[in-house]
Inverse folding.
């Protein structure tokens, strides 16, 4: 019989997108839906960098270098140096989004059957890339009660087996918004050095830190060979559709392997490399206003959430996500109900149930992730909806 | 010890690019190098489709639908219908280049340890995607003496084991330029139906056929579930840097699985989707002049090659590649010598040794691939070089 692969069968569907048909039905009924479910910012892409693409004047849309244009990698060296990250153009491989950087990292460092430790809840697509690479995800619990701080060193070490090859962190974190402290990063360094592990550090939201400063994995000293930085311009410049990211490491063997994966797929997209290169020349205060806007939104949504009876939302230090515990038994059912059966003043909200971000079945059932990618007026209207919805839902 | 993966170790380096350092050294010495080694066309990207990107006026560079913009998929339905391929927008998943279509096909249809049969010589990156997916490539010999026709049905069937899940063809072929006949395509259909195999049909060069007509795998009847079309706009519109391709199939289970892989990487590049969509509206005679140009180049290069004593080049029916057997013992060494130790009137040529396109070690050692992606004047100058080079090389 003609059958698809087990890999194709077991590949997880996107937990964020499974409610989409219900949202579409709600819209068809005339209900306005506030989208707090996905990390697609409403922030305008800086017009200067769109113009760099629009004003490009080449005649042939050629393959670029498989590692990305050299001019762009040189610019990225400049970009990283502003964050105290010292790398050379040869230590940067431009990827098709952060997604490809993660997949290349798995492919180059782990074999099928190897294990990767990830503090849960975590970015759900790590599961997908793990399935593609045949890698086994070992989640380790971080709790909403501590604001999703790094689990204690003993807990992390307990999860390490002879098959463990890497730890992934996302800092600041998607979905929790948690910003790892310098101390936590140092603990991670101790562990990876002691146990010969790779650290994959997904720093997609590096610029968006509202409490304290960002410690990049590339700031850690004495673990150069262990560390891979996974990066993307998607959120930084609201350029998600460009599909440009980067894998950065000082490990020469990893670079050589990743380069072979990069050559197989020929090159990263050319247009968005032009955009990414132009972005490094944005005024240095570019992030100030964006950060101020996200901070205002964070303050609004966290305050509103915690004011709703039975809701708990730890204050996220970065990114543009908040996790909240709701007074409901099953957030999956509640989120579907919001779209299927609820409206307030002709409006409702779409949230991401947190269960999809946990690797351990049954965890996070009362939690949801909220992406504050809409303005404060919309956030307030959305919170009005949530407040009314919980009231109505719990009266049933 | 901290080590990279076996996958990273065994991943093949690009056989086309390994001569690059020698070409760079030749250029530094002031030697002009004619590049016949890679499939990067010199043809201008149609200005209208570049303008579609340049004139786009969105404010946020958003993620597109994971399967690609619906408007683009609808346009692709129109494009395919012109080639007698009847599909719906739901049967098309837009990919990041043809590369991703091939990888998704492997991932969705084959598990690690499964086998895929590919007539050799074949596009070298199939090896890379196979390593990424843990799939085992079973090459089956096609001969330069027959112009690289499909091996006989018995030979194909002999290669089938319980682990065989798919056959890949590239039609017209890279690297051989061979255009599979309707009869050969029907033989393939019989085999895939009889043995429950998938047929991956890479049709990147569909428009470039100089002898007879193109038979798409999608023209075959009664094997809808077995067939996956892998496509790309790279060569069609000289838009290699766009990184836009497509996976097309009527198999619903495959579509559902591929969609999960597509969701994990979020979306294909947005800019080049605009370009691809505009390309479908190019005047219908757009390919006439391009085809005429490539045919003139093919006629020139094949005639010149066969006029050199000891050289044999079968007439390729499509794509923009020719394979030639040279009167040398080891084409790898000869190709390096061309760059390192030879020049004629301050010029030399870069060719792709064919060994990298064969899966069986030792095959194709006297053969090279020539990509006729330079104009006829340059081709003639390059052939002058080759003629002199072989004379000089064989005098040694």
């Amino acid at each position: 019989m003609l059958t698809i692969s087990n890999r194709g069968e077991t590949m997880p569907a996107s937990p964020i997108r499974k409610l989409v048909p219900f949202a579409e039905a709600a819209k068809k009924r005339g209900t306005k839906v506030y989208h707090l479910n996905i990390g697609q910012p409403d922030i305008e892409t800086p017009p200067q960098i769109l113009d760099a693409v629009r004003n490009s004047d080449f005649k042939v849309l050629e393959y670029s270098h498989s590692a990305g244009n050299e001019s762009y990698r040189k610019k990225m060296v400049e970009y990283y140096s502003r964050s105290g990250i010292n790398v050379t153009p040869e230590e940067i491989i431009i990827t098709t989004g952060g997604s490809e950087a993660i997949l290349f990292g798995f492919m180059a460092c782990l074999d099928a059957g190897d294990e990767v430790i990830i503090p849960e809840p975590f970015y759900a697509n790590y599961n997908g890339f793990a399935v593609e690479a045949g890698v086994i995800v070992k989640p380790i619990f971080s709790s909403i009660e501590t604001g999703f701080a790094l689990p204690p060193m003993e807990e992390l070490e307990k999860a390490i087996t002879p098959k463990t090859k890497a730890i992934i962190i996302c800092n600041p974190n998607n979905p929790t918004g948690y910003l790892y402290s310098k101390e936590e990063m140092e603990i991670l360094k101790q562990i990876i050095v002691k146990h010969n592990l790779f650290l994959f550090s997904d720093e997609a939201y590096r610029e968006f830190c509202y409490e304290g400063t960002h410690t990049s994995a590339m700031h850690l000293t004495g673990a150069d060979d262990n560390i891979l930085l996974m990066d993307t311009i998607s959120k930084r410049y609201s350029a998600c559709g460009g599909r440009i990211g980067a894998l950065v490491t000082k490990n020469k063997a990893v670079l050589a392997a990743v380069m072979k994966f990069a050559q197989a797929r020929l090159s990263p997209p050319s247009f968005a490399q032009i955009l990414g290169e132009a972005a490094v020349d944005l005024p240095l205060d570019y992030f100030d206003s964006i950060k101020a806007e996200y901070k205002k939104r964070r303050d609004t949504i966290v305050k509103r959430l915690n004011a709703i009876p039975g809701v708990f939302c730890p204050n996220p230090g970065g990114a543009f996500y908040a996790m909240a515990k709701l007074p409901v038994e099953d957030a999956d059912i509640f989120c579907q109900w919001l779209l299927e059966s609820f409206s307030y003043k002709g409006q409702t909200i779409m949230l991401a149930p947190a269960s999809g971000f946990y690797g351990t079945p049954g965890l996070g059932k009362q939690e949801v992730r909220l992406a504050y990618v809409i303005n404060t007026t919309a956030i307030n209207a959305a919170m009005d909806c949530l407040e009314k919805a919980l009231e109505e839902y719990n009266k049933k």
Notes: Chain A touches chain B through 81 residues (CB under 8 Å). The radius of gyration of chain A is 21 Å. Residues 102 and 230 of chain A are 6 Å apart (CA to CA). The mean pLDDT of chain A is 97.
